[in-house]
Design brief:
- The chain has 259 residues and is of the alpha/beta class.
- The chain has one domain: FAD/NAD(P)-binding domain, CATH 3.50.50.
- It has nine helices and eleven strands.
- Strands 1, 2, 6, 7, 8, 9, 10 and 11 form an eight-stranded mixed β-sheet that branches. The protein has a three-stranded antiparallel β-sheet with strand order 3-5-4.
- Helix 2 packs parallel to helix 4, helix 2 (38-49) packs across helix 9 (239-258) and helix 3 (81-89) packs across helix 9.
- The radius of gyration is 19 Å and the shape is globular.
- The N and C termini lie far apart (56 Å).
Length: 259
Amino acid sequence: MLERKMDEIIISKAITESYFKDLLETMEVDVAIVGAGPSGMAAAYYLAGNGVRTSVFEKRLSVGGGMWGGGMMFNKIVVQAEGKTILDELDIASIEYQEGYHVAGSVEATSTLCSKAVKAGAKIFNLIGVEDVMIREHDRITGLVLNWTAVSMANLHVDPLVIRAKIVIDATGHAAEVCNIVARKTGAKLEVLGEKSMWAEVGERMILDNTRQVCPGLLVAGMAANAVFNAPRMGAVFGGMLLSGKKVADLAMSLLKKA
């Protein structure tokens, strides 16, 4: 039994002070990632692991996006051989179902990816959503306008706060939320075409082609990339999502070096 007397004020101060330390440190970052699904978390892992100041904003309570639930709540995911290289790098167990198809547990994959990203140095903020972006000269995206998820859910009129980022990555999945905001704010300079129906073979191939910079300072990864460029969805195969996260991290690092 614990003998130390517990002080609720100390507990509350510890949470508040440590949280606001992280929040203040993330007011200016190298890369801000919106969406903590598999592509966003993979990008955070590779960026932070290379010394890039990286923060991730997830509007939901939990990270992992659609990967948590596997396929139709069967908590298994499939990756192709190329995607398995990332599972192996992260020490996520998998078995070969048949040639070219590998099965992993979605709970292990998601929790390990999150843990690896945090241990690499990425800061993850859940329950925070993006309601606008900062756009400056030449339509360059220079930051995010943030608010608590609870504020939007309750439809409260509460003004947001802003962070500055050299690079923003939209990894919000099917909704392509950041790209849709930018499309509305910049007119025809960015158009979100919407995703096509499921075709795993084509969707997996195109997701890497579509992982790219869509306007100055804004990159797109994961299912958001296919949603922007009218490519198919893939279902519960996640190798392309992980590879997209790695590719967008490489692209972001290349852009940061040129800045």
